[in-house]
Amino acid sequence: MILIIDFGSQYNQLIARRVREHHVYCQIEPPDIPLDQIRTLQPEGIILSGGPASIYEKGSPKVDPGIFELGIPVLGICYGMQYMVNILGGAVAGSNKREYGFAALTVKDGGGIFRGIEKETTCWMSHGDSIQALPAGFQATAVTDNTPVAAAENREKRFYGFQFHPEVVHTREGMRMLENFLFRVCRCEKSWTMESFARDAVEEIRSQVGSGRVILGLSGGVDSSVAALLLHQAVGDRLTCVFVDNGVLREGEAEKVQDVFRKHYRIRLRFVRAKKVFLDRLKGVADPERKRKIIGRTFIEIFEKEAKSIKGAAFLAQGTLYPDIIESRSAFGGPSAVIKSHHNVGGLPRRMRLKLIEPLKHLFKDEVRLLGRELGLPDEMIWRQPFPGPGLAIRIIGEVTDRRLSILKKADVILQDEIRAAGYYRKLWQSFAVLLPIKSVGIMGDRRTYEHILAIRAVTSDDAMTADWAKLPHDLLGRIANRIINEVRGVNRVVYDISSKPPSTIEWE
Ligand code: XMP
Hints:
Blueprint (H helix, E strand, L loop, with lengths): L1 E4 L6 H10 L4 E4 L5 H7 L3 E4 L25 E4 L1 H9 L3 E3 L5 E9 L12 E8 L2 E4 L5 E5 L7 E4 L4 E4 L11 H12 L8 H16 L3 E5 L4 H14 L3 E7 L7 H12 L3 E6 L1 H8 L5 H21 L4 E5 L4 H8 L18 H5 L2 E3 L7 H10 L4 H4 L19 H20 L8 E15 L2 E14 L7 E2 L4 H14 L3 E6 L13
Parallel strand pairs: 1-2, 1-3, 3-4, 4-11, 12-13, 12-15, 13-14, 15-16, 18-20
Antiparallel strand pairs: 5-8, 6-7, 6-9, 9-10, 10-11, 17-18, 18-19
Helix pairs in contact: 5-6, 5-12, 6-12, 8-9, 14-15
The structure holds xanthosine-5'-monophosphate.
Xanthosine-5'-monophosphate binds next to loops.
């Protein structure tokens, strides 16, 4: 395994994903990880990440310098490189010239970590400080116009430093450089596959659960679905999934979940029809945050009641992913300001005195999809676009009523149909319809109409943190609008949302 020390760079998760794409397992840990724990992990190599701080800043992150005595190869990236140089006796200085963006990189020494890299290549820079003097035993191995020490190494000790970011695509041969570090320098084996992960995870779940029973909240999304299959493999009938139909799901969604999990996989499934409770509590509520809170609380209440009736359950399983774990403990930047309170069931296990099992907590989303495929989950579920917990309730602006729900569901079916038929479903991060509470005048046949406006939202994104509106072909948009207006009663106008995130958000509420 490779240990990545998190100095707070926005690219950390990308480094980890790149390493894993090479089938090498890696873990991201905060800088205060004790040296003993590092020894126990027995990493083949350590990557010191970049970060926003300057090493001379008070309180800038530091890792135990003992890592340089372990005989393990170290690769420092940006801040990580400066940290290494400084600790080992070199000099780093602030400069008022920040270097940001593309730079032409000239490789001076084509061996080792630069094996197979072109002499003139490009890299992506993002730094203020730069290296003035290297520690004894180091030599500079690459330069850019502005940075005489763009890369350096002490080949004997196997310490390497890049002032640029090899993990971003703009560094043209960055993948190759990481590959050299992993296999030429660290001598890693390509042993990280979802097949091996599934095998180990099943073993681990079995030893954790013993003869106990497990409950899992199934939403139909890819994370909880994959978690369910994995747990089912591990403990069979001692797993009970609970699915709460809150009435604000997409058309046919609840039935599909029943079909796949109960009929196809024969997994024990408690299916709770709770539409009435949810809609009753949402009556008259227009404020988005109140809607979220009501739906979140009602879900927990129902789930808790259901779970209590499952005799002998001692474990609660959740499909938490690695980014949630990393972000929730990140020492830098802190939790980002709450813009929308996403409901989660974080407090549930403690309240219910259940032990938590999170079998996917070391995986990234793309790995969960691969695992899903490994476990035989249908493609349609593996590639399902994300769907928010409060569901269609936050896509009906204003009050949620049965009638509005029915309009939105019908329009949404048409939208999904057309998007899929045009081959866009997988290319889009999300695509959905939003029902607006305003009416406009139209003309149908010879009659004046006065009906709802429906907005179409389709975005591309990698992680939902930023998103761009999708440049869907005009004829596709035209078809969608045409069908919705003709087939859905109550809508006489369709508009397309062309805002990106930021400054807008993906959902309208
Ligand atoms: P925004 O609208 O904040 O959405 O740009 C980012 C991503 O989060 C999803 N989302 C939610 N998911 N509960 C959820 O489980 C929520 O309350 C919620 N609000 C937004 C949204 O669909 C997008 O993928």
